[in-house]
Amino acid sequence: MIAEIISVGTELLLGQIVDTNAAFLARTLSPLGISTYFRTTVGDNPDRLRGAIDLALSRSDVIITIGGLGPTSDDLTKETIAAAFGDPMQMDDGHRQWLEGFFRGRVGSLPQSNLKQALIPVSGQGLPNPNGTALGACFEKDGKIAICLPGPPNEFIPMVETSVVPILSEHTSGEPMTIHSRVLRIIGVGESSLEDRMKDLMQGDSPSVAPYAKTGEVHLRITARAESRVRCDAIIAPMELEIRTRLGNAVYGVNDETLEHIIITILRERGQKVATAESCSGGLISKRLTDVPGASHAFVLGVVAYANEAKVKQLGVSEEILRAHGAVSPETAKAMAVGIRQASGADFGLSVTGIAGPDGGTPEKPVGTVHIGLAWNGGVISQHNQYIGNRAIVTQRAAHSALALLRAYLIDPSDPIFDVK
Ligand code: ATP
Ligand code: MG
After folding, report:
1. Model confidence pLDDT, tens digit, residues 132-187
2. What pLDDT, in 10s, does the model give residues 287-328?
3. How far apart are CA 187 and CA 408, in angstroms?
4. How far apart are CA 177 and CA 168, in angstroms?
């Protein structure tokens, strides 16, 4: 089955928004065994939209349109598909009544312009949209299918999962299928080395395993296709176990779990606390930690000590260390970590000092040089990292590495990197 995705919207053509919906949809279609041969973007213009639809119908079995289901006069997708299919539309009375109730509670009565959001194809079906006012639509004629979905991602994504996948899997395999994924979040293993170690696991279809490089980490998405969610989970579980066996502690979380979530959870369980002393990361570590609900149980104090005097006054870094080694050095990172631990009374002091650029680099300490410090009861270490990238990337990676170092200590303090002898 050949699919074509048609994204409708002048905003997309002007580059004002990025077509994340089409990317999401394409990732969903391939595990269904559907080949996406074409992706088209067209503005809110009825003639050009009609041209794109006719072309798509001439070369694809299924076309899926994104956007243009709103109430305004430039929202024309459903009408244009109906014309291309020669399929008149009819009012879905149930949805019209729902719209009337929805608007009565808000603006008094149903605006005329919204009425068309309840139109569905006579020979096809309307597709429920739990998060918006526009019904989706599915047209079918002469073996061709057209599915119209709304543009706002919070409406679009659930409809892909609850309408598109069941409709299309029924056409491809004769039985309704569901797709389910689980993401393993991995730190400390590069994308290419990960691919080498997982190559044999990446050949499969259900489950399929695919790597995604993120800033400072890699995600492995395990995806299964089966007749039920329970069956998908059963297909995913042994694959997850195999990956975890190979990668050990490098797998730090699943799905939406972030490093900061994991850290706060562990610290809370143990009744321990952390404090941070940041230079080049400008407070990003404390921001990430305090974004986690319940962080107050585990986070005590965060200091952004940018100037040397601040490092001395606020953190007790000795002028001697700064003079002998410089602000960006293992010695300063350690002194900052020890200093914030003492000042706060926390169990852990975590520090970052580095050169984010674009200026300030030297041949010995180029832009991207970052030292991270971690102090605990009975020890302190520093870690040297060298990053490539602009100021924003260096800062983000510095914060990420610092969190990764603390997490590594929390799950295995006997790791040789924490050997202080
Ligand atoms: P509305 O009822 O909001 O008008 P619609 O179905 O007519 O919805 P559009 O008007 O095309 O959809 O887009 C509405 C909004 O949805 C856009 O401003 C944009 O924020 C988002 N959006 C639209 N298309 C996409 C896309 N392909 N990828 C990501 N976001 C999109
Ligand atoms: Mg619109």
Report:
1. 999 999 999 999 999 999 999 999 999 998 999 999 988 887 767 777 889 999 99
2. 999 999 999 999 999 999 999 999 999 999 999 999 999 999
3. 10
4. 9
C-alpha 154 to ligand 1 mean position (Å): 10
DSSP letter for each residue of 12-28? HHTTSS--HHHHHHHHH
In which element (H, E) is residue 254 found? strand 251-254
Alpha helices for 379-418 (secondary structure H): 391-411
44 in ligand 1 pocket by Cβ < 6 Å?
no
Nearest CA, atom 4, ligand 1: 70
Tokens coding 258:
């972030």
Atom of ligand 1 nearest to the CA of 133: 2
Sole residue written with tokens 């004629």: 141
Instruction: Produce one character per residue of 11-25: b if its CB has 16 or more CB atoms within 10 Å, e if not.
Output: bbeeeeeebebbebb
pLDDT in tens, 84-143: 999 999 999 999 999 999 998 888 888 999 999 999 999 899 999 999 999 999 999 999
d(CA 269, CA 267): 5
pTM for this structure?
A: 0.70
43 Cβ below 6 A of ligand 1 = no
Integer Cα distance of 322 and 304 in angstroms: 17
Q: Cβ(136) to ligand 1 under 6 A?
A: no
**Is 70 close to ligand 1, i.e. is its CB under 6 Å away?**
yes
